[in-house]
């Protein structure tokens, strides 16, 4: 493993938010924001106007706080933009929808280099472009006096394309639990960075720029998925949300998870061996990969990109998550994990 090199921008001290001013910052950021196909009125007025062919709007918001969700010495500005967009686009995908537009709020210290904000805008635009989406508006404000942290709030709008939204509450006993995307990579990358290293690059890059399977959400909805969620806080934690909302038990198959997430042998095992961690701990409790977890009727044919990893069982003794029939807490203890996933106020 190699030591990381600082990614904090140096920049021209005269080219900061304080010097350029709000409208100067906005102009520079918008120059890199791209174009949303659904935008009838883009940035420049009091509000944007976005077409809604479906006549329904999927809306979601994520807030990224420097020091908690990203660090400027670990991630480039472009990385932060990609990550902020991905968190929202994945939530929209988990409803079976496609993102059409983003609105961004930013609070930053006055000495923040404008080049850094331009980098964030580039990352946002590049992550959104394949979806035909872009930033269509937002706001900027100075951080609280004395604060050195950047706060980035992103709201995404999405279109269902005539589909019914796939909720967390639709799982039924007998359904198949399936996974699209990868698990544990971002958590492994975070573990590497926390120890002062920057390799293997595969897992570090996964933490800096997650790669959610956006298209899998619409495909799952078309295939009859009964419930779905974005795995942002950890597999067991987010599966628990589905179980609770549906009043069922999601019984995950450990062998299937190993096949889906740890075979063939690769970076997760390499990092686990180097750090003395069972990589299954990252698979079960690691967040920010933004994989999608869904349930499908047992006789349904799983669409391409989806892998079966368990079954839905009746919640006679209460809703919850198990691994091979074992309660989640015991499954976590067996792999040395302390929590089922990210705790936002822990």
Explain this structure to me?
By secondary structure, the chain is an alpha+beta fold. The protein has two domains: 17-159, 60s Ribosomal Protein L30, Chain: A; 168-334, PurM-like C-terminal domain (Phosphoribosyl-aminoimidazole Synthetase, Chain A, domain 2). The protein is built from twelve helices and 13 strands. α3 (77-93) packs parallel to α7. The two termini are 29 Å apart. The model has no long low-confidence stretch (mean pLDDT 91). Substrate binds at residues 69, 288. Mg(2+) 4 binds at residues 46, 60, 91. This is Thiamine-monophosphate kinase.
Secondary-structure blueprint of this entry?
Blueprint: H1 17-20, H2 22-30, E1 39-41, E2 49-50, E3 58-65, H3 77-93, E4 98-108, H4 114-128, E5 135-142, E6 151-159, E7 176-180, H5 185-194, H6 201-208, H7 214-222, E8 227-231, H8 235-246, E9 248-252, H9 254-261, H10 267-275, H11 279-285, E10 291-296, E11 307-314, E12 320-323, E13 326-327, H12 328-334
Parallel strand pairs: 4-5, 9-12
Antiparallel strand pairs: 1-2, 3-6, 4-6, 7-10, 7-11, 8-10, 9-11, 12-13
Helix pairs in contact: 2-4, 3-4, 3-7, 5-6, 5-10
Task: Summarize this entry quickly.
The chain is of the alpha+beta class and 346 residues long. 33% of the residues lie in helices and 22% in strands. The longest helix has 17 residues, at 77-93.
The radius of gyration computed from the alpha-carbon positions, rounded to a whole number of angstroms, is 21 Å
CATH class of the largest domain: Alpha Beta
CATH topology description of the largest domain: Phosphoribosyl-aminoimidazole Synthetase, Chain A, domain 2
SSE string, helices as H and strands as E: HHEEEHEHEEEHHHEHEHHHEEEEH
| Major sheet strand order | 8-10-7-11-9-12-13
Parts with pLDDT < 50 across at least 5 consecutive residues: none
- CATH architecture annotation of the largest domain: Alpha-Beta Complex
Q: Number of DSSP strands?
A: 13
Strand content: 15-25%
Largest sheet properties: 7 strands, mixed
Mean pLDDT across all amino acids: 91
Q: How many independent structural domains?
A: 2
Gross morphology is globular
How does the helix and strand content classify structurally? alpha+beta
Work out the helix count: 12
Helix content: 25-40%
Q: For the terminal residues, how far apart are their CA atoms? A: 29 Å
Assembly annotation:
single chain
């Amino acid at each position: 493993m190699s030591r990381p090199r600082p990614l904090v921008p140096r920049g021209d001290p005269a080219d900061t938010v304080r010097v350029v001013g709000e409208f100067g910052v906005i102009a520079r950021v918008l120059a890199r924001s791209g174009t949303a196909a659904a935008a009838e009125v883009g940035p420049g007025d009091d509000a944007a106007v976005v077409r809604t062919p479906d006549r329904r709007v999927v809306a979601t918001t994520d807030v990224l706080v420097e020091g908690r969700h990203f660090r400027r010495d670990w991630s480039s500005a472009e990385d932060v933009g990609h990550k902020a967009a991905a968190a929202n686009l994945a939530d929209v995908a988990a409803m079976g929808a496609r993102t059409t537009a983003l609105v961004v709020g930013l609070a930053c210290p006055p000495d923040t280099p404008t080049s850094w904000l331009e980098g964030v805008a580039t990352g946002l635009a590049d992550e959104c472009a394949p979806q035909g989406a872009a930033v269509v508006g937002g706001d900027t404000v100075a951080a609280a006096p004395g604060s050195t942290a950047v706060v980035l709030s992103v709201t995404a709008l999405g279109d269902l394309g005539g589909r019914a939204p796939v909720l967390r509450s639709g799982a039924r006993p007998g359904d198949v639990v399936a996974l699209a995307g990868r698990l544990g990579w971002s958590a492994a990358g975070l573990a590497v960075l926390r120890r002062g290293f920057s390799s293997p690059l595969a897992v570090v890059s996964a933490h800096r720029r997650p790669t959610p399977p956006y298209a899998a959400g619409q495909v799952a909805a078309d295939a009859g998925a009964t419930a779905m969620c974005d795995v942002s806080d950890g597999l067991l934690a987010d599966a628990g949300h589905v179980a609770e909302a549906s009043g069922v038990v999601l019984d995950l198959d450990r062998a299937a998870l190993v096949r889906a997430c740890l075979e063939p042998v690769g970076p997760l095992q390499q990092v686990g061996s180097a750090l003395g961690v069972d990589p299954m701990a990252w698979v079960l409790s690691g967040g920010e990969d933004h994989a999608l977890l869904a349930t499908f009727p047992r006789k349904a044919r799983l669409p391409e990109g989806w892998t079966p990893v368990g079954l839905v069982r009746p919640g006679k003794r209460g809703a919850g998550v198990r691994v091979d029939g074992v309660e989640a807490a015991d499954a976590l203890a067996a792999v040395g994990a302390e929590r089922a996933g990210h705790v936002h106020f822990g």
